[in-house]
């Protein structure tokens, strides 16, 4: 129960760290190759938010949607021997994965909006909406509480999507075989 919860949280952290490293690396490469274009020309909060949506949020959304729809697992879940299952049958539907992803990434997207719109916090003398930043943080605490109460199988995003996350028996058997070989 707690073990599954910890695995899910670690898998999410791995996925977000992996995508962040890749996407930040790509952004730095773009910045270097094009002498700061378009970054140096994005001044307004909504411009930066649109750039973040196009070059960061959408690739992360596509990663989660494609991975869970086609493979039933992300790289983080694969590494930790987990997979997404559907209450409706053997396959996940596009709608299930879309709902899961929307709810899962909602705190992340709200954080972008709060910090960037109407004016980026780093460019303002007194940032607007400062107290709103507590909302996505409170949501994350709620998400973890629901995950704990769902015994690690169901997070908040799993209930409306009618999905869950379980140990992948095939992955577990492969890991155990590898451990036995390594311990000889």
Automatic annotation (TrEMBL):
Keywords: Cell membrane, Membrane, Transmembrane, Transmembrane helix. It is a multi-pass membrane protein. Coiled coil: none annotated. Pfam families: RDD. Residues 6-161 form the RDD domain. It is found in: Cell membrane. The keyword Transmembrane helix applies. The keyword Cytoplasm does not apply. The chain crosses the membrane at residues 12-30, 50-71, 92-110, 130-148. It comes from the Bacteria. PANTHER family: MEMBRANE PROTEIN, PROLINE-RICH ANTIGEN HOMOLOG-RELATED. This is RDD family protein. It comes from Paenibacillus thermoaerophilus.
